[in-house]
Amino acid sequence: MTTEQKVLRLSIAVTVLLAGSGILFGLLSGSFAIVFDGIYSLVDASMTTVTLLVSNLIAASTAGGARRGKLVERFTMGFWHLEPMVLGLNATLLMGAAIYALINALGSLMTGGRDLAFDHAIVYAVVTLLAAAGMAVFATRANRTVRSDFLALDAKAWIMSAALTAALLAAFVFGHLIQGTQLQWMSPYIDPAVLALVCLVVIPIPVGTMRQALADVLLVTPADLKQHVDAVARDIVQRHGFSSFRAYVARVGRGRQIELYFIVPTGWPPRRLEEWDRIRDEVGEAIGGESPDRWLTIVFTSDPEWAE
């Protein structure tokens, strides 16, 4: 699987399978922690499906063929803006689900906990741990080639799922071992306690993704890209004798939007369009990163107002 779409499809299929089994085993064992794990997976699967749709749109709009022509007619600015919106919504929903589960776990702890069938819970935890760990390794390796923010988030989600399932497994094994001992009074508190701990770990994890998504939606200028573009533009100004420049840079999902305005001194003799195009090529090569995800606009004007 060498494409973003194929990896996401496999991730969705495995997530839905684990979510269904989680809800079933959770109801059979009486574990709200397992039920939450299943619901959490369903939310993740639904958002991954939306992510896949956006990924397909971006891929189609930057590729060739008749389909691209129809998409470009209606969406001339592309679909990059959808990527941070989906990532931000995904992070928000996952945090919201974890906060709701935390409130329920604390309420259960205050009312005496709940009984749990540890044998069913252990079986679920073992199977889920193996599946999540396998998908985490697979998604991480696949993203070394694809280099996608979507796959990076998906791999992070699988790593998080594997770690949390390992915590559930340890708690369930402990609960099984203390049956018939002096510590058996702790059994009803194991499920809500481990759920509360899991939620406390889960809640902060999507914060970084949410912050980056918000920055992309608000078109916050990436400092490193702006510095690089400014350095290239200053060099072009010096070598070609322009007066100054204005640079506007934004990161929108995987897209990089760059607008460069070069202020040309008034009274210059006219040049052929081919000469201006050669300067544009020179600027584009110096900036680098040429791909369908780079939106580069270069303008030459003698009126600074056109660049403001």
TrEMBL record:
It comes from the Bacteria. InterPro entries: Cation_efflux_TM, Cation_efflux_TMD_sf, CDF_Transporter. Keywords: Membrane, Transmembrane, Transmembrane helix, Transport. The chain crosses the membrane at residues 12-35, 47-66, 87-109, 121-138, 158-177, 189-207. Gene3D superfamilies: Cation efflux protein transmembrane domain. Residues 9-214 form the Cation efflux protein transmembrane domain. Its main location: membrane. It is a multi-pass membrane protein. SUPFAM superfamilies: Cation efflux protein transmembrane domain-like. It is found in: Membrane. PANTHER family: MITOCHONDRIAL METAL TRANSPORTER 1-RELATED. This is Cation transporter. It comes from Azospirillum isscasi.
